[in-house]
């Protein structure tokens, strides 16, 4: 499985690039791993590849800076590595490379990007939705019982023309659910967000806190104003379940005496 973390050591990169287990102990390094050690450390020493923990700059003699961040401190081990005489594991683990810098170095060298860090068909960066993700919407909410757990979801506003609070009070006309025409969201994404915002507003009213997920998916306000006429009940229910109060999906933490039927 590819790894997408932002930083890796020269030790990690060299092993993964050659398809070897980083954590397996070896008396003798495989040739491909040794070649990677030499290639990357030479690129760092020549200034082709930036290393987060080894600068080429000379450390002033009266500096308070930690010497281990200066490549000259390790120069004997660096030369020994490049020359193929010795591979200092501590140094190779200390030398940290960012994914972005490694990507640039590979491109400038016309080196095919290693798939363990840059898998084919995968985007280089995560494409954030215009209105964020469920993870970014989640907010702490005090549970009703000690040891319980609860969250609420705050979905960003989707345009001044949309007033969800008025929708829940049945005070808007059919034409008041306009979305900013400049949005890049697909129609189904917009509909999903509208459904979720309406459901959240309805649940904010204490009188509506016991409306279960299935009932909310059939709520007259959602059916009238969310533009769901082309979506089946199962799809709407799935959208609603994503942002439903935790107590409606089955309580977490302390075991509940109730079945999950209340959430369905």
Molecular structure report:
The chain folds into 2 domains: 7-108, no CATH class; 134-263, no CATH class. Helices cover 38% and strands 5% of the residues. The protein is elongated. Strands 1-2 form a two-stranded antiparallel ribbon. Strands 3-4 form a two-stranded antiparallel sheet. By secondary structure, the protein is mostly helical. Helix 1 (10-17) packs across helix 2. The longest helix has 18 residues, at 187-204.
Number of domains: 2
Terminal CA distance: 35 Å
Please state roughly what percent of the residues sit in beta strands, choosing from under 5%, 5-15%, 15-25%, 25-35%, 35-45% or over 45%: under 5%
> How many β-strand stretches?
4
- Low-confidence segments, given as residue ranges, are 159-183, 251-264
Helix content: 25-40%
H/E element sequence: EHHHHEHHEEHHHHHH
Q: What's the rounded overall pLDDT mean?
A: 81
What's the number of helices? 12
Based on CA atoms alone, the radius of gyration comes out at 28 Å
Q: How would you summarize this macromolecular structure in one to three sentences?
A:
This protein has 264 residues and is mostly helical.
């Amino acid at each position: 499985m590819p790894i997408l973390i932002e930083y890796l050591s020269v030790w990690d990169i060299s092993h993964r690039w050659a398809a070897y287990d980083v954590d397996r102990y070896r008396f003798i390094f495989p040739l491909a791993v040794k070649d990677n050690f030499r290639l990357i450390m030479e690129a760092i020493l020549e200034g082709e590849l930036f290393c987060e923990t080894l600068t080429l700059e000379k450390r002033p003699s009266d500096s308070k800076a930690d010497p281990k961040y200066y490549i000259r401190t390790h120069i004997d081990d660096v030369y020994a590595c490049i020359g193929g005489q010795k591979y200092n594991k501590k140094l190779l683990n200390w030398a940290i490379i960012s994914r972005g810098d490694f990507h640039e170095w590979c491109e400038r060298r016309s080196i095919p990007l290693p798939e363990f860090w840059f898998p084919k068909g995968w985007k280089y960066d995560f494409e954030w939705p215009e209105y964020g993700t469920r993870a970014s919407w989640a907010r702490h909410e005090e549970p009703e019982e000690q040891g319980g757990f609860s969250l609420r979801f705050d979905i960003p506003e989707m345009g001044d023309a949309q007033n969800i609070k008025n929708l829940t009070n049945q005070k808007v006309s059919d034409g008041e659910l306009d979305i900013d025409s400049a949005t890049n969201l697909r129609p189904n994404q917009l509909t999903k967000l509208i459904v979720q915002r309406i459901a959240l507003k309805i649940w904010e009213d204490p009188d509506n806190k016991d409306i279960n997920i299935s009932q909310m998916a059939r709520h007259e306000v959602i059916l009238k104003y969310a533009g769901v006429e082309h979506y089946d009940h199962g799809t709407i229910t799935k959208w609603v379940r994503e942002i439903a109060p935790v107590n409606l999906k089955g309580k977490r933490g302390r075991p509940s005496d109730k079945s999950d039927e209340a959430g369905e």
